[in-house]
Amino acid sequence: MNKSSQEKLIDELLLLPKETEWVEFKLNNEEPMAIGENVAAIANTAALYNKPWGNIVWGIDNHHSLVGTTFKISLAKKGAEELESWLARMLQPRIDFRIEELLYQGKPVVVIHVPAATYMPVRFSGEEYIRIGSNTKKLKEFPEKERSLWRKFDRETFEKGIALGPVDLQVALTLIDYPSLFELLGQALPENRSGILERLKVEKVIQELRADEYNITNLGAILFAKDLDSFPTL
């Protein structure tokens, strides 16, 4: 049976020698405020270390042992509001984080996939956060990292930002009007998918993350989206 993209991701994370600033392992910690702070911190830290994304994973301990989790994030709430909706509302600017619940090797695992911050630090409940080692801290307490982060944003251009991802290639090709790209370039449409993929990467319409996983850039979405409503961050 073919593995899902999330299963492949967990395979990779388990190979890390230790927990990193952009990857956090948890067991059953369900405290909403801590989750929100960690999402903001990982978004900012991923940007600082030139990572396109980071992850929070429940069900793996700090020794990289798969133990499973009792945390049901799809059922979690903050007050009367669903946790996912509450997190999205409390994070500014909005980021397209993704939540997955799955069985990995027969054990329940929860993953929050967090895209790197772009153009400005992500705030949670009005506060900016960063990861220092395996700890989440307020960004203002580390002025050197704050300056480094802003310098990085100053060097970024909007076109290089991520409009959507990660998605598999079939989804990307469904969302992007790629024939228009070849028409604009005055080139014939390749007969195979690999030729289309290579040109999309060269023209920076998409970015390759790993086998059959891609980000669609802001440039690609704005110029070639079939429907901009498919890209909520824009």
Provide keyphrases for this structure.
234 residues; alpha+beta; four-stranded mixed sheet; four-stranded antiparallel sheet; 8 helices; 26% strand
Give structural notes.
This protein has 234 residues and is an alpha+beta fold. Helices cover 34% and strands 26% of the residues. It is built from eight helices and 13 strands. The chain has helices spanning 5-14, 32-48, 83-90, 143-155, 169-175, 178-185, 193-202, 218-224; strands at residues 23-26, 53-58, 77-78, 81-82, 91-92, 98-104, 107-115, 123-124, 127-132, 135-138, 162-167, 206-210, 213-217. The strands form four sheets. A four-stranded mixed sheet has the order 1-2-7-6. A hairpin with a 2-residue loop joins strand 12 and strand 13. Helix 2 (32-48) packs across helix 4. The radius of gyration is 18 Å and the shape is globular. The two termini are 36 Å apart. The model has no long low-confidence stretch (mean pLDDT 87).
